[in-house]
Specification:
Layout lengths: L1 E6 L3 E7 L5 E8 L4 H16 L7 E5 L11 E2 L2 H12 L4 E6 L4 E6 L5 E6 L8 H11 L6 H6 L12 H13 L4 H19 L6 E4 L1 H5 L2 H10 L12 H10 L2
Helix pairs in contact: 2-9, 3-5, 6-8
C-alpha cells in the first residue's frame, strides 16, 4: 500500500491507495502550528480508515511542510504532485489551476504529463483562500456559507480589485450603494477568477483543483463562464496533491 501526505499551509491531507491506484482511505485536518504532529495524525487516521497498520506502507510527503514529515520515505514538490494527480485523471496536455489557502499555482504540462511551465502568486493573498477568508470576515459572513450565498445571486457585481485591502474598501462602497449581499459575494469569487486569468493565459484543457475549489464549487461555474468552455474537475480536488504523492510512492 502507498500513502501520500500533503502538508498545506491551511490543511494537511493524507490519501492511501492500493496497487491498482484505487483510494482506500483519506483524512484531512487543519494544519495548525505543529506540522509533524498533524501529519502523524492524518496518517494514522487514514490508516485506521483503511484498516491498515503502520508497517509496510511506503510514504511520500509533499506541500510546504513536507520536510517536517520525518517518517516519509521521500518528498516531492506540491507542483509535481498536483501534476501527477491531475494527469492520472486526465492524461493529456493540461493547464492546471491549483487554488490553495495561501497561494495559487498555474502549471502547464505536455501530453506526457511533464511540466513545461508554472507560475505562483507568492507575494500577496489575491486569488487564494486567504483572500476569501479575509473578505468573509470583513463582511461578517461565515466562510463556509460564501459558496451558497453566491449561488443565490442573480447578478454579479464587478469587483475591480485583487488586493484584499482595496477589495474590502470597494465592498464598503457597494454596500453603501445598496447592492445585495449575494451579488457582492459572487463578485468576490469573480475577482478570484480574474486574478487567475491575469497570472497567465489559460490555454487548452484546464483543470481546477485544490482545497478552495473543493469547498466553493461556484468557482468552476465562473471559470467556465469566463473561458467559454468546460473546466475539468478531479474526483476529490482537495486531495489531488496527496493522491499525486501516493502515486509517486508507487514508483
Amino acid at each position: 500500500m502507498f500513502a501520500g501526505i500533503d502538508v498545506g499551509a491551511s490543511a494537511t491531507k493524507c490519501m492511501i491507495i492500493d496497487e491498482g491506484k484505487n483510494e482506500l482511505s483519506s483524512a484531512v485536518k487543519r494544519t495548525g502550528m505543529s506540522l509533524r504532529k498533524v501529519a502523524d495524525e492524518v496518517y494514522k487516521e487514514a490508516l485506521s480508515g483503511a484498516g491498515l497498520e503502520l508497517d509496510g506502507i511506503k510514504v511520500v510527503a509533499t506541500g510546504f511542510g513536507r520536510k517536517n514529515v520525518d517518517f516519509a520515505d521521500s518528498i516531492r514538490t506540491e507542483i509535481s504532485c498536483h501534476c501527477k494527480g491531475c494527469y492520472h485523471h486526465f492524461p493529456r496536455a493540461l493547464t492546471i489551476v491549483d487554488i490553495g489557502g495561501q497561494d495559487t499555482k498555474l502549471i502547464r504540462t505536455n501530453v506526457e504529463g511533464k511540466i513545461i511551465d508554472f507560475k505562483m502568486n507568492r507575494k500577496c493573498a489575491a486569488g487564494t483562500g486567504a483572500f476569501l477568508e479575509e473578505i468573509a470576515r470583513r463582511m461578517d459572513v461565515p466562510l463556509e456559507e460564501m459558496n451558497g450565498i453566491a449561488l443565490s445571486s442573480e447578478r454579479e457585481i464587478e469587483i475591480g480589485s485583487y488586493c484584499t485591502v482595496f477589495t474590502a474598501t470597494e465592498i464598503l462602497s457597494k454596500i453603501r450603494e445598496g447592492e445585495k449581499q449575494e451579488d457582492i459575494v459572487r463578485g468576490v469569487f469573480g475577482s478570484v477568477i480574474k486574478r487567475i486569468q491575469e497570472m497567465n493565459p489559460l490555454i487548452g484543457d484546464v483543470v481546477l483543483t485544490g482545497g478552495v475549489v473543493a469547498h466553493n464549487e461556484i468557482l468552476f461555474d465562473l471559470l467556465e463562464e469566463a473561458l467559454g468552455r468546460e473546466v475539468l474537475k478531479p474526483p476529490k480536488p482537495q486531495f489531488t496533491g496527496a493522491f499525486g504523492a501516493a502515486l509517486y510512492a508507487m514508483m
